[in-house]
Amino acid sequence: MCLILIAWQAHPDYPLVVAANRDEFFARPSAAAAFWSDAPQVLAGRDLEAGGSWLGIGRERRFAALTNYREGRQMAINARSRGALVADFLTGDAHPSTYLEQVSARAADYNGFNLFVADGQHLAYYANRGDSPPRFLSPGIYGLSNHLLDTPWPKLAAAKAKFASALADLPAQAAFFDLLADQEIVADSHLPETGVPLAWERILSAVFVRSEHYGTRASTLLTRHRTGVTTLRERSFDAGALLSGEVCETFT
């Protein structure tokens, strides 16, 4: 997952709103969002290579989402699966603070990541890069790409502003999917330097990433109403930014 926007207790009717894009190689097998057969309380997409996930919600209001931390150094090939961090929280019952303390204790076992976890009452965040411990987040609007929380990369700043505006249109969803579909490439003078070649910095600067072998695979909108009604709508894409499927699940 390479872009996550969260409104946490920032809307009078929707205490949780999440809009997110997952970017991945098209060759990596994955399943669209669905209730898991081996954990029926979990609604999430699934990485079919390592078994984890990038974003999901549980019937008991547990929520988790993850992005990788982009850095130029080579990834450790024997590292633990980062997707398991999402799956383990959704299928478990640990308090968010307890869970993130456990994760931070073994942070060196993973390549770089950012992780949100919530239980309906608390939203917490932790990254195994930087020097901040796990922490609770106060009500507000947050944005995350492939650096640290609210790092003002151009695509994140633009998407976060559009996300804040789209909240006013709820329950309408079109504005959220419009912002997630933005393919505008940022000018070179505004690109971050994350250790990847300039050509890749350009490609990755768009909210919706498009290239031959790698790009946005899924755009997801998750809303939880104050009545407890939760809706997850996900659009899946193939190479060429072609829509390949759409899922919509609602539960209380």
Automatic annotation (TrEMBL):
InterPro entries the UniProt entry points to: TANGO2 (IPR008551)
Pfam families in the record: TANGO2 (PF05742)
Protein name as catalogued: NRDE family protein
